[in-house]
Amino acid sequence: MSAPSIPNLLSLRGSRGGARGRSRGRGGHPASASSSSSSATRDATIQGTDTDAAVSRMSAVDLGYLQDPFAQFFVQSPAVGVPVRRLPIINRGTYTRTAALDRLVSSFLSGGESGERQIISLGAGTDTRCFKLFSQPTQAGLIYHEIDFPVTVRKKLQLVSSIPSLRAIIPNTKLEGETWSSQQLPNGCQYWCHGLDLRDLLKEDRKSIVGVRTDIPTLLISECCLCYLEVSESSNIIKHFTDRIQSLSVIVYEPIHPNDPFGKQMVSNLAARRIRMPTLDEYTDPHKQEARLRNAGFNSTQSLTIEEIWKKWVTAEEKERVDSLEGLDELEEWNLLAGHYVVAWAWRGKGFEGWERGLG
Known about the structure:
- The chain has a single domain, classed as Vaccinia Virus protein VP39 (Rossmann fold), CATH 3.40.50.
- The chain has a nine-stranded mixed sheet with strand order 3-4-5-2-1-6-7-9-8, with helices on both faces.
- Strand 6, helix 6 and strand 7 form a beta-alpha-beta unit.
- By secondary structure, it is of the alpha/beta class.
- Helix content is about 40%, strand content about 15%.
- Helix 1 packs across helix 2 (about 90-110).
- The protein has helices spanning about 35-60, 90-110, 130-135, 150-160, 165-170, 230-240, 260-270, 280, 285-295, 305-310, 315-325, 330-340, 355; strands at about 115-120, 140-150, 175, 180, 190-195, 220-225, 250-255, 300-305, 340-350.
């Protein structure tokens, strides 16, 4: 499991353009030794997209698109490889997606009454958002959960334990089974990292995830995670949380429009990497993404494509700054690419006043 920038579909531009998904989620359970092997191979392929995410994030940071002092620690491992400079169109995509998620998360944390709040990031992989949030002294009462494959979670623990800059932010880690945590962070914050296949949440005997609170406003984040699951699995995983948490919100970032010429090429590129996104065939446009969240039990829904977010949420001054970093000649191609990704968000219950005031 993991999250992406503007993922795997960007291999459309060739090897320099690289994709950057973040592996998260996957298909159904195997029924035989052969299918078990196939499932394991697919899971490994999805996990590998997290490397693309780390490299693309580092490219955007190196060139000045983003400020993220923690990105460097996730591209130095031999398993990740040498940092690669992505094409301008991809760097802009990474920047815009990150800016959108940052804006939504910030509004969630600052909106409404003060008090404890909870974030649950599905398929977090090498995501650095938790480090950025916990490094801010004003952030209090935050309980942050990350869920990913056990192998990915163990690697993250090794990094945090071995790198002083990370260990200073998340100290005194405690490992129990496939979950490690730091429950006594400054300002009443907690961090939990769960080694868990999301499909295991669908088992009848599955208990609630350790450390997850059900009595405080909670934000569920899926950045190209649930799209790797079968549609029914994706829906039931969301249901796992809606059944337990009343004041709940969700952010979903996924590709859309698979049936036009550009979308068909994206799907073809994914297939070449043996990657399939079942929800892409089901939730093909922003309206269907919003309907998906309403059907999941959320009262209020909104969505914007990455193209719309660049136009509406990025100020003129910031656009000028970003343009000055590399310049972008392929504006038509940028609009086409950015129009094929959507950020949809929804909420119900109390604690989402910032979102209710409108972000779109």
